[in-house]
Design goal:
Bound molecules: calcium ion
Distance between the termini: 33 Å
Shape: elongated
Strand order of the largest sheet: 2-1-3-4-5
Length: about 230
């Protein structure tokens, strides 16, 4: 992920240095703020590609910064990863309900943090793609609203089923391997077995009812959507 700017809002200077070192090595540019107020100002001025936001901060805590940024049109779509000091569920829930896209518990591995950063940035870039509604025959998938319909009737899909269907439709008839489906539906830092993917695909097919044949198995490779004509 070259040429992306990451804003680090964290009051532990050693941790900021460590983050900067690792992110520069991965090709990111960084901005740093050691308190919430400055972090919020930098976010407004520079509109970074991602914000790493500590929860416990001087001058304005991470929750307040996240709420303020989510309330402003220029900053509301910036992906945010919250750093929490403890793995207490209440902190995590607070972070996520305030608009963080993901969280990492301290101490964390750089590898995990960077993988999660890439996942949330990729997700964010997909959200602004112009083709938010994809259709194929009777099937309609609206990405921005996370809704699927067949013959104008809503189909109740789980998030995972929805992401699988979305990825297959976006591939427009090209085969996707189980690995590709996995990284789209679960994110790159999550590892699931082939069997798990197959179970979700089976459940998805069941919900497609009479149109279940639309999801084709390509033996030994993966899955694709039937019905696209490629010359
Ligand atoms: Ca802190």
């Amino acid at each position: 992920m070259k040429n992306k700017t990451v804003l680090i809002v964290e009051d532990e200077k050693d941790l900021v240095e460590l983050l900067e070192f690792n992110l520069h090595r991965e090709g990111y540019r960084t901005l740093a703020a050691y308190d919430g107020e400055t972090g919020q100002q930098l976010a407004r001025q520079h509109v970074p590609d991602l914000i790493i936001l500590d929860l416990m901060l001087p001058r304005k805590n991470g929750q307040e910064v996240a709420m303020a940024l989510r309330a402003e049109p220029t900053t509301k779509r910036i992906p945010m990863i919250m750093l929490t000091a403890k793995s207490e569920e209440s902190d995590i829930v607070v972070g996520l309900t305030l608009g963080a896209d993901d969280y990492v518990t301290k101490p964390f591995s750089m590898k995990v943090l960077i993988a999660r950063m890439e996942t949330v940035m990729r997700r964010a870039s997909q959200e602004v793609r112009p083709s938010d509604v994809m259709t194929l025959g009777p099937l309609k998938v609206d990405r921005s609203r996370h809704r699927a319909e067949i013959d104008d009737q809503p189909v109740a899909l789980t998030l995972t089923e929805f992401r699988i269907l979305e990825a297959l439709l976006a591939a427009r008839g090209h085969v996707l391997s189980r690995d590709q489906l996995m990284s789209h539906a679960w994110g790159e830092h999550v590892s699931v077995t082939d069997r798990t993917i197959d179970v979700h695909v089976t459940a998805l097919r069941k919900k497609l009812g009479g149109h279940r044949h639309i999801v084709e198995t390509v033996r030994g490779v993966g899955y694709r959507i039937a019905g696209y004509n490629h010359e």
